[in-house]
Amino acid sequence: MLFWVFVFLLTRQSSLTRGHPNLLVRAPTEGSCDCTINSCRTLFDIIWGCLVTIFACTWVALHQNVPDPDLGWFSLLLRKLRMMLMTIIAPEVIVGFAARQFLSARWISKEFKVSKTHGFFCNMGGFVSEKGHPVSSIKQLPDYMPAIQKIKKADIEDKSKGDTLSKGVAIAQGLWFVTQCLARVSQHLPLTELEVATLAFAVLSVIIRLLWLHKPLDVQQPIVVARSEVDIDPLQEEDTTPLSDSVTLIDKIFSGISSIYQEYSPLSSTSVPSFYISGIYQEYSPLSSTSVPNFYSIEIDAKDTYRFLAFAGVCGIGSTFGSIHCAAWNALFPSMAEMWIWRISSVFIAAYPALTMLFAAINVWAPYNNITVAVLWSFMVAGFVVYPLCRLFLIILSFTTLRALPPSVFVDVNWSNYIPHL
Questions:
Q1: How far is Cα 100 from Cα 105, in angstroms, rounded to an integer?
Q2: Would the keyword Methyltransferase turn up in this protein's UniProt record (predicted)?
Q3: C-beta separation of 322 from 344 below 8 A
Q4: What integer pLDDT is reported at residue 304 of this predicted model?
Q5: Cβ of 75: how many Cβ atoms within 10 Å?
Q6: What is the pLDDT of residues 1-24, one digit of tens each?
Q7: d(Cα 249, Cα 245) in Å, to the nearest integer?
């Protein structure tokens, strides 16, 4: 509720500078800048502050799974750059990935009486057998859990490149940017389109960091654990992740999303594709791998209704991300074309996740037939083409609109209104 109030206030204050975009020089201003260090900010300050925040929300915020031990530094760099690009284009996908790992880690923590850090470490391929294969499936966990329980939480955290304090500071950084935007709104000072776009990243970044608060950061080497001495069925050696019986329609939807981007044939490939955004890898076998895929998380036993609610939550976050961009609906743009491109792109980014959730609900609870499936896939395929274009348009416009800004944009927040004697 507070979020929508903020969007309303932001739209209302931006409407104060509404007018024909070509009449920028004659637009009324709500403040003046006397070019003193205490009352002004420069264009460099705006750009630098936004870029630093975006970098912290993408590169720094990413908590990747443990990579293959044979990967070199350049391959590791490309691996993280690809994930950073995914965060910029579709940050709600990363939120979904983080939420899935959080739920799985919490289930492991409760089921086996270990910490959430242990649960995350299992999900990210942090524990491997003596043969170097990741312990990353429900079938494997009971056999290796006695050894995992003997490992101290501090030993796992020691492998992390960031502790709770550093993650808390990063969360505070995102909240500080949100606070600055709120302060500008309350003082009727306009925000640039770049700041509105950065605000969307900052809000999602706080959510991602909270979900990954107990996940170790940038772990490069796993921990070897021994199997307990129990009688094991030889067939269990061919362990794989749950297949058709446990994969719901929602999982199939997500898996289908990935196949649109990348054709994959297990008979002609030596590795599992890394773009399965659902975390469901139907062909992945831990005993034939040395690491888990980029977006992997252990599949837990959950009801279809619970799965759908989680899916709906991710779609809701995606709509929130687009709605924040809609807050600049009545902002002053250099041209009419840029204004309408921003509006259309923002509406699509906000509406597409919600419509996807609606179509998914129809397919989950309505009778399964070819017509509904065809409509769903046609809608989703069209969205996979239009959605990245809309995101690209918003990113480009965030910078091109900086060429013509109203004077009131450069007026800094007067913090003495909130903190006496500052």
A1: 9
A2: no
A3: no
A4: 58
A5: 12
A6: 434 444 444 444 444 334 333 333
A7: 11
